[in-house]
Amino acid sequence: MESRNAERVRLRAERDKLRATDPEGLAEAWAMIEDIWTGTVARARELPEPVLHEQVGGEWSFVQTHRHLVLATDCWLRRMVKGIAHPYHPWGLGGSWLTSPRRWGIEPDADPSLDQVLAVRRERMDEVRDVIASANTEELERNCVPPASPGHPRKDRTVLQCLHVVLKEEWQHHRYAIRDLEVLDKRPR
């Protein structure tokens, strides 16, 4: 029971960080995201590469999860905050809501290796860190208007709102990845 309470306290503290509204708090939240993913990727690398392409319970594989996080960053940081009209990496992966990925320049059938996806992820994560590091209160309140090109999102948001989506996506998908790695660890090889 004590370990469950400790886990709840830890998760609550992490969620609280994700709600930061100032540059320092956002930097702390992003550092937390980078730290948790570093440990999880190290853990995943202990498994054979083909296992990291396996799905658990119909959910995305570990590699697909990272492809999705590339797309999330492309949508919310590159498209919205940076205003890039065609921000999408071809390996990005969206959910069922993305009905015409090729229209965005995305190749849903791509099958990159973990290392290939992590190289793109590193670039995207560096971009998030740089945007947060250069943000001030005025910038966080700036209204972002999506380009007229095909893509998501389609409605205006503030920089802070966009960063909150990126943080939430990273944190939530990390939890899914941990859950699925525990299953993959137990599968016979």
What does the model show?
By secondary structure, the chain is mainly α. It has helices spanning 2-18, 23-44, 62-81, 114-134, 137-141, 159-186, and strands at residues 143-144, 157-158. Strands 1-2 form a two-stranded antiparallel ribbon. Helix 2 runs parallel beside helix 6 and helix 3 runs parallel beside helix 4. It is globular. The chain starts with a helix and ends with a helix.
If you compute it from the alpha carbons, what radius of gyration comes out, rounded to the nearest whole angstrom? 17 Å
Q: What coarse outline follows from CA principal-axis ratios?
A: globular
Report the biggest beta sheet as strand number plus sense, adding barrel if it closes.
2 strands, antiparallel
CA(first)-CA(last) distance:
33 Å
Write the layout of secondary structure elements.
Elements: H1 2-18, H2 23-44, H3 62-81, H4 114-134, H5 137-141, E1 143-144, E2 157-158, H6 159-186
Antiparallel strand pairs: 1-2
Helix pairs in contact: 2-4, 2-6, 3-4, 3-6
